[in-house]
Amino acid sequence: MSVHYFTVGDPISFKGRSGVIDYYDGGTAVIKLLNCETIAITHIDLADAYRNGEVSLTRRSQYNPCHIRLDDDQAKNVILYEKYCIELSKEARPCGKGVRERVIALVAKEFDDPNPPSIAKIHRVYKKWIENGKNMVHVLFGNQRCRRSVISDEVYSLMDEIIAAHYFKPSRPTAKRAYREFKKAYKERQYISNCPSLSTFERRIKTSDRLECIRQRYGENAAREEARTATSKTKLSRALELVSMDAAHFNCGLKNMFGFYVGMPSIYFVMDDYSRVILGYGIHVGKHSESTACMVHTLRYAISKKNDPLYPFYGLPATIIVDQGAAYVSENAIRFFSGLQVNFAKTATRMGWGKPMIERFIRTARTGFFSDLEGYLGKLDKRFQSSETIKKAAVHTVSEFRQMFSEFIVDYHNTPHSGLNGRTPAEVWAESVKSFPPSLPEDMPYTQLMRGVCYDKKLKHVTGITIDYQTFNSDKLQRLYHELEPSMKPGVRSEIKVTTYHDPLDASAISVVNPRTNELIEVPNIIADEAKGMSFAELRSKRKAMITAQEAPVMDGGVREQYSKTQRRKGPDVPLDDFDNPIDLDLILASPSKPIASVKSGFEIRTLTDDEDDDYVVTVD
């Protein structure tokens, strides 16, 4: 190797230690290590060390650290000056007398440069080229001019105080409003120089920490969302290793079997993050809200085996991840998770990226199913309100919606997934469960008793318990009544209340707590065949719905058929006036304890009984 190969500034590795050639002249080289230690060595010894492998060049990669975009003229300029510096670096003494002049003349002639650089300029450029790892782009265009500010540090400190006190506020004041406060403070301190302008104040705001500004003005949730970063990917090795759960609300109205509006769907999903299959889902129709009962129902259904060959997905997960919504952190929810004996992980509130798989599926459901669903008004956005109301836009019944959504889920399971390298979720699941078969809780029937909504209800003799217009009774429940009834006389009824648990999505049965043993008793619906697989909302929607005055047909005499005034929202639909002999309704309502006979035979007024839910009932003989 030539002893003149090394140049000043070359990064090298000397016996496993990194450094640079700090001096190379007069037969001696000086190596400066990263720990600032210097080693002097002759050119001959350095060449021998190179041949023996004790010294190696570690050339820095030639890249643009500032990512500077160059036009054609700038690119030509970079190439030209690189040629000057490369030719100069080949010289044994680049800065020797007459060397730079000779190199400048040689390169200028080769490139036909009409304005070659001066000796002083080429010396400065060469020195910076060595210092910057031989990156000519950074030497010529990387250093930005930085003007020294004429504003003192004391004034900047005052700006920072005003920004923190009057701009970083949840009310989100404008920069102009905060600037007015700054001008007042500046005037009070009686500075001699002119007050900095509004644009200077705004530039100072922009130099503040962005995330801190968002945190103070928009809240912790917004700052956390802005600060999120994906630095790693979740690695799963089998199905049911990690299961995520979430609920989504959809801006779509549904009707009952009579054609009347009943509410909007909220759907609870349970997803296996490894295979992307939907282990189970539950549809709640009504107001948009999340409840523990619906969550428990959906998770219990997801774990259980289904009687559907198209839905072979079930099993107890190792870990369940949810957010910190009220439905997932309530006492009943924690009790249910504890009964399953699974790991329970929570993400922070409003941190959907903590469970990205299920959040992505919900977006797929919106774009792949709801966007083509007639009556869907898009994701709710308060900035853009549709002129069409949810009730008017409602097209499909609850049963139709359930059928269509079920078909969508089956299609999803059998559609190639980009996150699974083109395989379908069903294929990945089937492949995984061959090696890792899913398991079920030892006492699965017990989980059926762990329903979510807890109420104290009256236990009645003979009739049992009534919840949301549904009656639940059994011989075992009546035996419990007689055990709790303190009176030993026939016909004497005490008020007995028991704790009940019911699932809004399953009206077939409820759970009742025996107050003496604290055991759960399952009590079926007295219309068990009709209630099987039905929710309370669906059964309630089958009740004869009230219609508005505008929708009701007009009978002879001007009375609208099947329509009662809003003051009498419940009870039988009968005319409140007989055309020949009108009833004085005000007199009836003013005297609830006094029986009043109608002037027309056939009508009877009586007070409310325990089994009825209106102030008065009008019956017809």
Task: Describe it.
- It is a single chain.
- The protein is an alpha+beta fold and 621 residues long.
- It has six domains: 11-57; 72-141; 153-226, Homeodomain-like (Arc Repressor Mutant, subunit A, Orthogonal Bundle); 243-435, Ribonuclease H-like superfamily/Ribonuclease H (Nucleotidyltransferase, domain 5, 2-Layer Sandwich), CATH 3.30.420.10; 451-541, no CATH class; 552-621, no CATH class.
- Helices cover 34% and strands 17% of the residues.
- The strands form five sheets. Strands 6, 7, 8, 9, 10 and 11 form a six-stranded mixed sheet that branches.
- A hairpin with a 5-residue loop joins strand 8 and strand 9.
- The longest helix has 18 residues, at 72-89.
- The model is unreliable at 545-581 and 593-621 (pLDDT under 50).
- Which homologous superfamily in CATH is the superfamily of the largest domain? Ribonuclease H-like superfamily/Ribonuclease H
What is the strand content?
15-25%
Instruction: Output the number of helix runs.
Output: 22
End-to-end separation: 121 Å
CATH class of the largest domain: Alpha Beta
Q: What number is the mean pLDDT? A: 79
**Could you give the count of β-strands?**
19
Using the coordinates shown, work out and report the CATH topology of the largest domain: Nucleotidyltransferase, domain 5
Structural class based on helices, strands and sheet pairing: alpha+beta
Low-confidence stretches: 545-581, 593-621
How can the largest sheet be summarized?
A: 6 strands, mixed
User: What is the helix content?
Assistant: 25-40%
**CATH architecture designation of the largest domain:** 2-Layer Sandwich
